[in-house]
Amino acid sequence: MEFTKGQGTGNDFVIIPDPExxxxxxxxxxxxxxxxxxxxxxxxxxRVVRTAADPELAAxxxxxxxxxxxxxxxxxxxxxxxxxxxxxxxxxRYLVARELVATSEFLVGTRSGQVAVVVSEEAVSATMGxxxxxxxxxxxxxxxxxxxxxxxxGNPHLVCPxxxxxxxxxxxxxxxxVVDPGxxxxxxxxxxxxxxxxxxxxxxxxxxxxxxxxxxxxxxxxSGACAAAAVTLHxxxxxxxxxxxxxxxxxxxxxxTAEECALTGAAVLVAQGTVFxxxxxxPTV
Length: 285
What we know:
- This protein is α+β, with helices and mostly antiparallel strands.
- The chain contains 5 helices and 17 strands.
- The chain folds into 2 domains: 137 residues, Roll (Diaminopimelate Epimerase, Chain A, domain 1), CATH 3.10.310.10; 127 residues, Diaminopimelate Epimerase, Chain A, domain 1, CATH 3.10.310.10.
- The protein is 15% helix and 41% strand.
- It has a 17-stranded mixed beta sheet that branches.
- β5 and β6 form a beta hairpin.
- It is globular.
- The mean pLDDT is 93.
- Catalyzes the stereoinversion of LL-2,6-diaminopimelate (L,L-DAP) to meso-diaminopimelate (meso-DAP), a precursor of L-lysine and an essential component of the bacterial peptidoglycan.
- Keywords: Amino-acid biosynthesis, Cytoplasm, Isomerase, Lysine biosynthesis.
- One of its GO terms (molecular function) is diaminopimelate epimerase activity.
């Protein structure tokens, strides 16, 4: 099976071309591909399929009709995700690099709807729906309880700005933060943020770490950066504006208007090759 490996600010993906929709992407195949010891290693899998080739997608032309290509995204544990901000940017880079699209500006279909992308040599920008702030709740981590804001970015997020007494580098994110299962029945991506101070930082510049559902801590999360930006702007009394989000894998910028949210940052293809499906399973003892 052919594959390409890509990453967006350290959030890495295995990209599988399946233009005619012939591949059955089982959870076992996804976990095998994403295994960092027995597979290729990644935070998730991006299946590249034409919307017209998938019966389920073709049956909903109003939702996906303007997008020729659909991003079928799976978390590293094999679960299905509605949206992935870095994933859609890497997906767009792949389509341009493989000449599967004729221009550098186009639409990509996702489970949360169409995403408009712009691809340049330096970066890829993805414009999504406006993040919806849903109210406050808490996350428990390592015996501490943090207050955060639930945010809908097409997928669920909980953004927790840290109190001054806690440093971002001190957090232990080897286990998932404990959240209210009634509010997040399908799990949630939990972002922790702290302000960046000093020159040239501005008032809407934050650092972020994230625990992604179905993956664990990742070096970046695009939709999480959008959620963090929305909460940062809201806390400073702004419904729209430009925010900078530094993640362990690099820097993302988020421009929020009354209607939409544009995420911009690096997206790079790093390798391509062939993977042997029968060799992906980890040995049992």
